[in-house]
């Protein structure tokens, strides 16, 4: 049930709270009474069902038209939640009716009475109901239990019911191709509506916009659907709409004409009743003469779906101007545009549905890069942010506040306030801009009414990189605006705008001729992720652009290259192959290392390490599938012990019978809720939870794939993997530098050899060699100036001195102090530029949203050759770090305070958004006791990063991630030690969401879906 709906029924006044409590008690009392509707005689014919049989079996005995989307599966255990929904909905509507105008109170009372008379059915959604398909997919084929009911729909559903605010049903004949808006207009042509809620016959619900400002294509209502549309202005009815449509969905298809049959089959060894006893008297058959038709002369318009498009600057906008529109959370765009003399490369992303941000490189073709030795044109870097202030409604436009070139040099800095209002396929924008957007000064700055300080705009500092708050909203101001038209040809969008810049105050005295402030352009959407733009700007310049876009929150990849899943049967294996073969297959499927497998009583314990990945739950399912296939029938549960580097971190218990049931039959929401809790934190002080004794003879042949002969009881003896002390690997390496004065892109391609030797599970040494094979570092000649110790600005020297380097050579030991505290000590070549010794302590309670850590290091600068040589510079560095999972929209925060590599002291703030599919977008900023002038260009350290699981990208499962970080400049202030093996990452499985990341739900209907889960439908 939606938390928003529940919040809406949490009033401030005690009478309503008392009424709500009474409603809950009524729910419990109603469910405590025996249900006459579920009683039936023992099955005597094919129309009745038998406890323990599957839905497919029952369907094969019924008339062919029984397998229709309106088939209802009623489960008594679901009535409690549905009764609670009904009662709280009635309490809310009753309270709203008392506040309604007197002229509307009678209608509200009729609506309440009508809802009161509806039964609580306990309906659970079904997916595909074709019996042959169900037999081939047993996990979607429910096993029917005593007390459950199957209610067959009418064989010929012909009408759609529109519920009116007075509780009356308007029955409209279904017509193919008609929209929700059509049916609402047929029943209430004189009242405006903004939203309609639809319950399809199969129980799925959705919300549809039915006004010029929010209309969009949607699935048409099927025969037998319910529609509820609260009139515009009835705020309290609109707020209750989600609850109303969910409760209507539990009723099954809407009432049909009296000639149509409805059959019910019930399961219960109780008193005999007739099938018609389950038909509610609140839903009488529909008289044929009461059915109306959609008027052909009053068809609702069919508008195209809103579609966010980018402007020349990469923002959601028109051409040169921004709009108030936003994409969806997770949207990611890369675009390039050219209009002389500017070429812009933009990267924009949407971490939240109300926030858009990104960065940009602008090439100014007729101005040279002052620090360049290769003669390249000037490259300006900038950061943008846009925030939505108001959502659009019937009478209120969408409003956004934005900042362009917020954290760059300020050459193109601007602030703006913009509003958008949509009417059908036209989207109008109007805004006011300052700075670069307001250079024409076509209006007086309205903030001058507050103070004369807003008359003059100060120039950004020479160092750039920091927000120049003293310039915000100051100086000339201009109006800008335009319109975007979604043409009848789906791929084409036309844009027309009036811009507020007159190009007479261009940065670097690069003024341009403008013949007209009006710009016009076209966007051709070649595919959902590819768009081409062209236009005429300033009245004399052609603009061309290309945009590539995706939604990272919805990223998913099918896995055709993965091996097929293990063969599933509900029965246990009669000939177990042996744990060695089981462990080998688990590792091949998951890339996790199985250390040991040992039965103990009726449980099989599995010890797993190197399990750091994003999609853990998918791999757990693979582990259990292999264990179920290979384990003997005497094993009733599987216990998975996770450890990293000898640290026991997490344990899961999976009941075998529950897992089999979930994979062999569809489960009701009540059955899913009843699943036992299976996660716990391993206690300290016992060897692997006291379930593994090292003295046991668990050794197996070195080849883990060797299995004993079938039937050999020795195959089920405890097994342990032979410890591999030395591991070695080769991987490709790539690094790049963007936007530097020597070339826009400097890169190197090579091969990296990594090696590890383990003295004990918790003590090991890492080493890496990198061989640079291909690069363009012959252009790399620039060393940035610095007023601080050169801890990062020797980037060129470290990158170019030698082709064969040793980035890392580190000895590490980790340990556990108690259940929640961990430590590590380490020493060696800790990163490519620094070597030394250090220690880290981490306090991380199991499943806590908070963690706290401290690291202390004494380091010395390495030689440019990245061998064992050292330079003279040395420093103490370390930080205290607080980690916080806010629990709000996947937002995480890290705040670190301490001393950095250059000896400066300050704070780093890192904010990120982690989506449900594991993709992370974040940004960091560091401010220390170094002044902006002393720091140099950029003013302070900052950057943006993205992390994407390979599972979301590749056609084959991979536990690794792709990471990209961007910083506008590399400077010496605020530089942290880039050491490997941090404890927070090593203990990531203790995160409360460690097993919750997975590919986005495809929203395909499934048997057992909870009808009250409105979020799934949205």
In words, what does this structure look like?
This protein has 1018 residues and is α+β, with helices and mostly antiparallel strands. The chain contains 16 helices and 40 strands. The strands form five sheets. It has a 13-stranded antiparallel β-sheet, with no helix packed on it. β37 and β38 (920-928) form a beta hairpin. α4 runs antiparallel to α8 (235-249). The radius of gyration is 33 Å and the shape is flat.
Summarize this, please?
This protein has 1018 residues and is of the alpha+beta class.
Number of helices: 16
Main pleated-sheet profile:
13 strands, antiparallel
The percentage of residues in β strands lies in 25-35%
Subunit organisation of the chains: single chain
Shape: flat
> How many DSSP E strands?
40
Structural class: alpha+beta
What is the CA–CA distance across the termini? 13 Å
Radius of gyration: 33 Å
Helix content: 10-25%
Widest sheet: strand ordering: 28-29-30-31-32-33-34-35-36-37-38-39-40
Rounded mean pLDDT score? 87
Keywords:
single chain, 1018 residues, alpha+beta, 13-stranded antiparallel beta sheet, 16 helices, 15% helix, flat
Write the layout of secondary structure elements.
Layout lengths: L2 H6 L5 H19 L22 H6 L11 E3 L4 H21 L2 H15 L6 E2 L6 H6 L12 E4 L6 E5 L5 E5 L6 H8 L7 E5 L5 E5 L16 E3 L6 H15 L13 E4 L64 E9 L2 E11 L2 E14 L8 E14 L7 E7 L9 E10 L2 E10 L41 E10 L5 E7 L19 E10 L2 E8 L3 E11 L27 H12 L2 E8 L2 E7 L6 H15 L6 E8 L2 E9 H9 L4 H5 L5 E2 L38 E2 L5 E13 L6 E16 L2 E13 L19 H6 L3 E15 L2 E9 L4 E10 L6 E13 L7 E16 L5 E9 L5 E10 L5 E9 L3 H4 L5 E9 L11 E6 L16 H4 L27 H4 L1
Parallel strand pairs: 4-8, 23-24
Antiparallel strand pairs: 1-2, 1-3, 3-9, 4-5, 6-7, 6-8, 10-11, 10-21, 11-12, 12-13, 13-14, 14-15, 15-16, 16-17, 17-18, 18-19, 19-20, 20-21, 22-23, 22-27, 24-25, 25-26, 28-29, 29-30, 30-31, 31-32, 32-33, 33-34, 34-35, 35-36, 36-37, 37-38, 38-39, 39-40
Helix pairs in contact: 2-4, 4-5, 4-8, 9-10
């Amino acid at each position: 049930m939606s938390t928003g709906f529940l919040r809406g029924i949490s009033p401030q006044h005690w009478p309503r709270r008392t009424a709500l409590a009474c409603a809950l008690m009524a729910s419990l009392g109603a469910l405590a009474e025996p249900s006459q509707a579920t009683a039936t005689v023992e099955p005597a014919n094919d129309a009745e069902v038998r406890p323990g049989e599957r839905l497919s079996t029952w369907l094969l005995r019924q008339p062919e038209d029984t397998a229709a989307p309106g088939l209802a599966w009623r489960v008594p255990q679901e009535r409690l939640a549905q009764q609670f929904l009904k009662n709280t909905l009635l309490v809310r509507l009753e309270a709203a009716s008392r506040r309604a105008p007197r002229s509307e109170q009678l209608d509200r009372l009729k609506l309440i009475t009508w809802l009161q008379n509806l039964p609580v059915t306990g309906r659970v959604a079904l997916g595909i109901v074709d019996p042959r398909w169900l037999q081939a997919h047993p996990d979607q084929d429910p096993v029917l239990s005593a007390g459950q009911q199957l209610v067959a729909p009418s064989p010929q559903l012909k009408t759609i019911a529109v519920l009116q605010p007075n509780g009356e049903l308007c029955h409209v004949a279904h017509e193919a191709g008609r929209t929700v808006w059509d049916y609402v207009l047929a029943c209430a042509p004189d009242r405006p509506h903004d939203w309609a809620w639809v319950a399809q016959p199969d129980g799925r619900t959705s919300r549809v916009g039915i006004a010029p400002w929010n209309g969009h294509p949607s699935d048409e209502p099927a025969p037998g659907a319910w529609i509820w549309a609260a009139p515009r202005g009835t705020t309290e009815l609109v707020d209750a709409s989600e609850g109303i449509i969910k409760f209507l969905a539990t009723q099954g298809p809407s009432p049909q004409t009296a000639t149509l049959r409805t059959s019910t089959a019930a399961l219960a060894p109780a008193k005999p009743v007739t099938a018609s006893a389950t038909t509610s008297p609140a839903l009488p058959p529909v008289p044929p003469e009461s059915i109306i038709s959609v008027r052909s002369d009053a068809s609702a318009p069919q508008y195209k779906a809103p579609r966010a498009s980018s402007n020349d600057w990469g923002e959601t906008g028109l051409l040169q101007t921004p709009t108030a529109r936003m994409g969806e959370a997770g949207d990611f765009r890369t675009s390039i545009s050219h209009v002389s003399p500017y070429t812009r490369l933009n990267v924009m992303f949407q971490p939240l549905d109300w926030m858009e941000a990104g960065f940009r490189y602008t090439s100014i073709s007729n101005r040279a890069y002052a620090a360049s030795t290769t003669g390249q044109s000037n490259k300006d870097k900038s950061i943008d942010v846009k925030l939505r202030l108001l959502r659009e409604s019937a009478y209120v436009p969408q409003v956004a506040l934005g900042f362009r070139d917020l954290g760059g040099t300020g050459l193109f800095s601007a602030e703006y306030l913009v509003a958008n209002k949509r009417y059908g396929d036209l989207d109008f924008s109007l805004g006011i801009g300052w700075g670069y957007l307001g250079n024409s000064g076509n209006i007086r700055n309205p903030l001058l009414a507050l103070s004369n300080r807003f008359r003059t705009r100060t120039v950004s500092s020479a160092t750039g990189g920091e927000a120049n708050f003293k310039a915000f909203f100051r100086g000339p101001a201009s109006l800008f605006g335009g319109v975007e038209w979604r043409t009848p040809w789906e791929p084409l969008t036309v844009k027309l705008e009036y811009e507020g810049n007159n190009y007479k105050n261009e940065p670097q005295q690069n003024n341009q001729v403008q013949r007209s402030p009006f710009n016009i352009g076209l966007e051709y959407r070649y595919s959902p992720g590819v768009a081409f733009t062209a236009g005429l700007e300033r009245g004399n310049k052609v603009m061309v652009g290309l945009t590539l876009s995706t939604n990272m929150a919805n990223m998913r990849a099918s896995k055709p290259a993965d091996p097929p899943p293990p063969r599933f049967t509900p029965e246990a294996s009669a000939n177990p192959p042996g744990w060695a073969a089981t462990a080998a297959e688990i590792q091949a499927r998951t890339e996790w290392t199985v250390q040991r497998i040992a039965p103990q009583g009726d449980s099989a314990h599995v010890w797993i390490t190197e399990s750091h990945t994003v999609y853990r739950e998918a791999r757990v399912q693979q582990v259990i599938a292999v264990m179920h296939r290979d384990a003997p029938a005497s094993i009733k549960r599987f216990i998975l012990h996770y450890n990293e580097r000898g640290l026991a971190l997490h344990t899961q218990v999976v009941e075998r019978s529950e897992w089999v049931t979930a994979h062999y039959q569809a489960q009701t929401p009540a059955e899913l809720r009843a699943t036992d809790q299976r996660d716990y934190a391993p206690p300290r002080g016992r060897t692997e939870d006291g379930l593994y004794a090292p003295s046991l003879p668990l050794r197996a042949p070195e080849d883990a794939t060797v299995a004993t002969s079938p039937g050999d009881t020795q195959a089920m003896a405890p097994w342990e993997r032979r410890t591999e002390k030395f591991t070695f690997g080769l991987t490709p390496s790539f690094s790049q530098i963007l936007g530097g004065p020597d070339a826009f892109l400097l890169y190197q391609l090579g091969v990296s050899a990594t090696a590890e030797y383990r003295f004990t599970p918790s003590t090991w040494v890492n080493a890496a060699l990198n061989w640079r094979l291909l690069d363009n570092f012959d252009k790399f000649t620039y060393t940035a100036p610095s007023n601080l110790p050169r801890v990062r600005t020797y980037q060129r020297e470290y990158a170019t001195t030698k082709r064969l380097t040793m980035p890392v050579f580190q000895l590490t030991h980790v340990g556990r102090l108690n259940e929640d505290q961990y430590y590590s000590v380490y020493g060696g070549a800790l990163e490519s530029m620094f070597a030394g010794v250090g220690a880290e302590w981490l306090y991380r309670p199991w499943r806590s949203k908070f963690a706290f850590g401290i690291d202390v290091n004494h380091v010395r600068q390495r030689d440019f050759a990245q061998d064992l040589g050292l330079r003279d510079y040395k420093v103490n560095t370390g930080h205290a770090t607080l980690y916080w999972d806010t629990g709000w929209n996947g937002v995480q925060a890290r705040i670190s305070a301490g001393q950095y590599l250059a000896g400066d002291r300050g704070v780093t703030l890192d904010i990120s958004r982690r989506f449900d599919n594991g993709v992370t977008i974040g940004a960091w900023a560091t401010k220390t006791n170094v002044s902006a002038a002393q720091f140099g260009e950029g003013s302070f350290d900052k950057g943006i990063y993205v992390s994407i699981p390979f599972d979301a990208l590749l056609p084959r499962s991979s536990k690794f991630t792709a990471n990209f970080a961007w910083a506008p400049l590399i400077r010496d202030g605020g530089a942290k030690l880039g050491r490997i093996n941090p404890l927070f990452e090593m203990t990531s499985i203790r995160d409360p969401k460690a097993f919750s990341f997975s590919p986005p739900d495809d929203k395909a209907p499934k048997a057992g879906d909870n009808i009250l889960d409105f979020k799934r439908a949205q």
